Amino acid sequence: MPGENLTREEAGLRARLLSVDAYEVALDLRSAVGEGRTFRSVTTIRFRFAEPGAATFADLLAPSVTSVTLNGRALDPAAVFDGSRIALADLAAENVLVVDAQCAYSRTGEGMHRFVDPEDGEVYLYTQYEPADARRVFANFEQPDLKAPFTFTVTAPASWTVLSNGAQDGEPETADAGAATWRFVPTRPISTYITAVVAGPYHVVRDHYSRTLPDGSVLQIPLGALCRKGLAPYFDAEDVFTVTKQGLDFFHDTFDYPYPFGKYDQAFVPEYNLGAMENPGCVTFREEFVFRGKVTQAAYERRANVILHEMAHMWFGDLVTMQWWDDLWLKESFADFMGSFSQVEATRFTGAWITFANQRKAWAYRADQWPSTHPVTADIRDLEDAKLNFDGITYAKGASVLKQLVAYAGRDAFLEGARRYFKRHAYGNTRLADLLSVLGETSGRDMAAWSRSWLQTAGVNTLTPQVTYDAEGHITELAVLQEDDPARPGLRPHRLAVGLYRREAPGGALVRYARAETDVTGPRTVVTELTGAERPELILVNDDDLTYCKIRFDEGSLATLHEHLGDLTDPLARALCWSALWNLTRDGLLPARDYLRIVGRFAGAESEIGVLQTVQMCASAALVHYSAPEQRERATQELAASALRELRQAEPGSGHQLAWARFFAGLATGEADLELLRGLLEGTAKIDGLDVDQELRWTFLATLASRGAADEAFLDAELARDNTASGKRHHVRCLASRPSAEVKEQAWAAVVESDALSNALAEATIAGFDQPGQRELLAPFAPRYFEAIERIWRERSIETGMAVVRGLFPHLQDHPDTLAATDAWLEAHTDAPPALRRLVLEARDDLARALRAMDCDAAAAKK
Q1: What is the rounded CA–CA span in Å between residue 232 and residue 626?
Q2: Fewest CB within 10 A of the end CB: N or C in the chain?
Q3: What is the pTM of this model?
């Protein structure tokens, strides 16, 4: 990987010297159908150079280069190509570079990924580049600020569907027997990392969107939706198109800038590393968004959010692009914010801000407390830094900060700023100052001061209410105390609301009866508007979730939640309380036993399915990582009994029933519980309304396999029943989860000692390997992890390296010896790549947090 890196300084120098006029890329993908590992890539780059006679380089990651021609002069490939760069010397003011290379198909989701469907043997291709993998497919200048128009030509089997960013230019031309050549119209100026090619026998559904623009012209946007043929029976393209059209309406109304990239195809592709990618005109999604079985409404809401997130990128990121990865937030934070904003405003998912408060912010809070946290505007030294900064800070914290900005500057000023930003910088590249300039114009606010507080500092503040009462029970003073993290000092200005809640009658609903919106600054802010209010049972700081902070409770409010959380009728307020309780647990301030007790009492009454599933996920994490070891077995049995009770009581056929079935399956350990799962699989047991479809069968099998109750033959029989790409991933995971030293050794070798597995199957193996009930079985692999990770990082792609380093860290060896071993590795490897050290530091912090929470839980047990 070091030879593949590119520093900010190198990119900056190249951008000052060089401007690109056009790319012409010709790819021959016929070899994908056979056993070929490479394909031919011929690239013509027309560019200008500011210092004639000087030198620069082009980027290319390829097994071999056939020829390099610069301004008609043949260069010796062996002399100018080192495996990652092509040296270009004696440049003219205007240049033409032609590179003919053999590029490699990928198994790791980077570059040109090749997937063979086990169901029918068909081959599917797609590209994925961010931040810098276009150079695995064609020669280029791989940095976001060297935009240019791209013209793609692709030769492939004639029966395939082939797509790129631009519309197809005429009918495909016959290349030879069984093959054809597709030509695509030139794109508008875009960055290399958002170019795309999708090719294969995809199932395609077509639709159309039209809109009359203010000048009276009609904007016509052809729509396409694609998936593998094997997923066609499950593909609900109509719902995808519904959300797409709602999004296009919303963004046209909101941004006042017509969609600039012609057509709009959305391809759901196999073995995808990300949720989706915003390639203009050719968006790619992970195919898990095509639901093979029954899912809850939260899954449809999540898919709609991703569709709208990627659509927002057509403006934030594709039309206007950050200059370098320091300002990645200029696209990702905005897209994350706009995904929820447009859902609430334009779709049936009007509760998206509840999901945002409960799920997206949890991701941000976790990342912002790691030692690797960084400002929203980050210091990105090179491409390895850039790869790791697609994180909870850049996405979810950035989006949270923008939500605070809307409260601070006003909705109208915020949106007018966006409109001016697009018109002023269309097809260009920007930095932080460019956005702050237009927002300052439209809001009249000091955006520089706001930026320093929110965008240019790291860490999360904690806000706690402090209240006193008079003899009659009225508030004499209510203050909000603000604390920072000592490791990341700095208090911020917060525009927020404080809500007062009480029960309408004994046993009645817990409702808000007073609210005040105020500016919190400094360590202590008095909320004068609530002076004199009657005593509340619950004080909720950051009511309505206007700002980004961790909230705490006064003693009385926390007692109320222990007894009456289920009586809180407002779903957003409930979501905020669940989130705050989880943060208390993670911080070692609320014993895991107390959190699990609250879950057992009130999760069954949670009406919001997305919140329920998040609470269930947190409860599982509390059991595995934060419960005192001597209490885990009992706590697991109690929560499993609670989950089974809720499963049996849930409305038949409902999303809540499905959520409880999956949660119960993850907890089942006792013989009776495992027998129930086996009975549901075999049809000898039944729960009214619960459809045990293929995906739910694999969920039950995963538990049975990890508990030693499903052997290889049993799992092989299930694969024969579901011999699909999804079935293969499930099967691999289940095989690796079995409680056997031999199985674990095989799984370790498959991931660590070999690179034969694709990205999807490697991740499935890692997921199966790491089972909470197998701590003793996994203990011998902890020292081997620290011996292997530097080699893995050096030899594998960064995507694979990240999966192994994160996925195989010995989190389950949760005792001080593991912490000491981690510290020893960090101390002995100060010269390891910074990105690798960052991953290990994050894992170390999670482990230290778990040990503190376990101590808290153990101490509570002794009281």
Answers
A1: 43
A2: C
A3: 0.95
Cα angle value 749/750/752 (rounded, 5°): 60
Alpha helix positions (H), 57-198: 77-80
Q: What is the pLDDT of residue 2?
A: 40
Per-residue pLDDT tens over the stretch 608-624:
999 999 999 999 999 99
Q: Residue 387: what pLDDT? A: 85
Four-residue CA torsion sign, 176, 180, 181, 183: positive
Element (H, E) at 45: strand 38-49
Which pair of structure tokens corresponds to residue 226? 């694609």
The predicted-structure confidence for 139-171, as pLDDT tens digits, reads as follows 999 999 999 999 999 999 999 999 999 999 999
pLDDT in tens, 78-95: 999 999 999 999 999 999
Q: Does the annotation mark 795 as catalytic?
A: no
Helix (H) or strand (E) holding 23: strand 18-28
Q: Mean pLDDT, the chain, as a whole number?
A: 95
Residue among 815, 804, 840, 813 nearest 825 (CA): 840
Compute the Cα dihedral for 383, 844, 626, 364 and give only its sign.
Answer: negative
Encoded amino acid at 607, one letter: S
Spatial CA neighbour of 259 closest among 206, 222, 207: 222
Q: How far apart are CA 146 and CA 129, in angstroms?
A: 15
- Sheet strands (E) in 413-552: 429-430, 462-469, 475-483, 494-503, 510-520, 524-526, 538-543, 550-551
Main-chain phi, psi angles of 754, to 5 degrees? -140, 155
